[in-house]
Amino acid sequence: MSDAVLSQFKQTVVEEKKEAGKKLKIGIIGTGWIAESHIQSYKQMEDVEIVAAADLIPGKAEKFMQRFGVEGVRFYPSHKEMIDNEELDGVSVCTYNTQHAAPTIYALEHGIPVLLEKPVSVTLEEAEAVCRAEKASGKFVSVGFQPRFDANMQMIKKIVDSGVLGKIYYIQTGGGRRRGIPGSTFIEKSTGGIGALGDIGCYSLDMVLNAIGYPKPLTVSGYVSDFFGKDPKYNGADAARFSVDDFAAAFVRLEGDIILDFRIAWAMHVNTPGDTIIFGTEGALRIPSTDCWNGSFYKPMTLYHDLAGERVETTIPLLKTGASLFDLKVRSFLDAVKNGTPAPVPTSQILYNQAIIDGICKSAELGHEIEIDIPEI
Ligand SMILES: NC(=O)c1ccc[n+]([C@@H]2O[C@H](COP(=O)([O-])OP(=O)(O)OC[C@H]3O[C@@H](n4cnc5c(N)ncnc54)[C@H](O)[C@@H]3O)[C@@H](O)[C@H]2O)c1
């Protein structure tokens, strides 16, 4: 996003604040690692008051707010007490994956819009429950995919939408690290629920699915493994408690006769499982692989196409976004709350993302391809 665009956006915020004359009361559920980025962004927003925080670990939320110098916050032992006792305009759900659905649904049932960290859930059933609660509430959930706000990421969609690639028929995507297994709550079934799939896999799926308009996934043949996570040689003392995937791969059929070939790794014996490539009948786009789809592009994309009968390559210059992706994510949520506009990253799309992840896990367990069944919400 250019500076000119960004300054217009700041001006709008100031004007709205004058009109509304009231600050948005925000609560934070889960005060761990990612909550740090939420609070840093909220603190910069003049129209926000952080009024409440909850964490299951006694004293954690208090220390968190002290660390960030935020005063006047009321503290609660879980999302329930917080939501029961506060009048909130919005909440950030920053809990680990297995605790995404319950606080989100509870907030929606109390009429509170939610900025929910990614992945939306662990299972498709939980994602469906979130979508149903959202529909019933008339409020919205926006999912924390900050890469959506990266100018390069947006360029992928613009290129696809321009038609220069023709009909898209095959996509390979994914990414990963040669060695990069996180610790903390990411690696246990009871907290993370899923591993590399939920941590970074959901980003690479979102990157390409958003670019092509989120077609419905139809079938999936999935594979997951945990060779590195469970081996003390590679994962030290954490190996004993490692109970999620550290690698996943899948062959997915999407509506519109599109094949998605996907792989994601927290650890492997190669530097990258490959660039993302979008194959179209008129051109192809190569998006250089990164360790982790956190929205950072370190090399330009390349467009391969024919021009005047010759095969040519066009380098797409790296674009500058002009603001922190985390700030843009939080700001987009606040603006939707204020203006009553749709969720910036809607669950109607992310439901399909979660359906693929869920399908990979189920197919891997069964050892064969499965149909993906997504009910109408
Ligand atoms: N968008 C990003 O770039 C990004 C980056 C890292 C993590 N994440 C996501 O953020 C989420 C949290 O990750 P993290 O590393 O901060 O985890 P964490 O374990 O550091 O923090 C989660 C906190 O939530 C608390 N908690 C759990 N259930 C709760 C409940 N019902 N009520 C109140 N508190 C509760 C836990 O006690 C813990 O302190 C994960 O889903 C992860 O995928 C997103």
Descriptive account of the structure:
By secondary structure, the protein is α/β, with parallel strands linked by helices. It folds into 2 domains: 3-146 and 325-346, Rossmann fold; 151-320, 2-Layer Sandwich (Dihydrodipicolinate Reductase, domain 2), CATH 3.30.360. It has helices at 3-20, 33-44, 60-67, 79-85, 101-109, 124-137, 151-162, 196-211, 232-235, 325-339, 347-366, and strands at residues 24-29, 48-54, 74-76, 90-93, 114-116, 141-143, 168-176, 217-225, 247-254, 258-265, 276-280, 283-287, 301-307, 310-316, 370-371. Strands 14-13-12-11-7-10-9-8-15 form a 9-stranded mixed beta sheet. Helix 5 runs parallel beside helix 6, helix 7 packs across helix 8 (196-211) and helix 8 crosses helix 11. It is globular. The two termini are 34 Å apart. The model is unreliable at 1-18 (pLDDT under 50). Bound molecules: nicotinamide-adenine-dinucleotide. Residues 29-35, 54-57, 60, 78-79, 94-97, 99, 103, 117-118, 144, 146, 184-185, 199, 294 line the site of nicotinamide-adenine-dinucleotide. Nicotinamide-adenine-dinucleotide (NAD) binds at residues 29-35, 54-57, 60, 78-79, 94-97, 99, 103, 117-118, 144, 146, 184-185, 199, 294.
**Percent of residues in β-strands:** 15-25%
Low-pLDDT segments: 1-18
Lateral strand order in the biggest sheet: 14-13-12-11-7-10-9-8-15
Q: Estimate the global geometry from the Cα principal axes.
A: globular
**Main sheet summary:** 9 strands, mixed
The CATH H-level superfamily of the largest domain is Dihydrodipicolinate Reductase, domain 2
The amount of helix comes to 25-40%
What's the pLDDT, averaged over the residues? 93
CATH class of the largest domain: Alpha Beta
- Radius of gyration equals 21 Å
User: How many strands appear in the DSSP assignment?
Assistant: 15
What's the end-to-end separation, in Å? Answer: 34 Å
Summing up helix and strand content along with how strands pair, one would put the structural category as alpha/beta
Order of helices and strands: HEHEHEHEHEHEHEHEHEEEEEEHHE
Number of domains: 2
The number of helical segments is 11
Assign the CATH topology of the largest domain.
Answer: Dihydrodipicolinate Reductase, domain 2
Q: Architecture of the largest domain in CATH?
A: 2-Layer Sandwich
* Cofactors and ligands: nicotinamide-adenine-dinucleotide
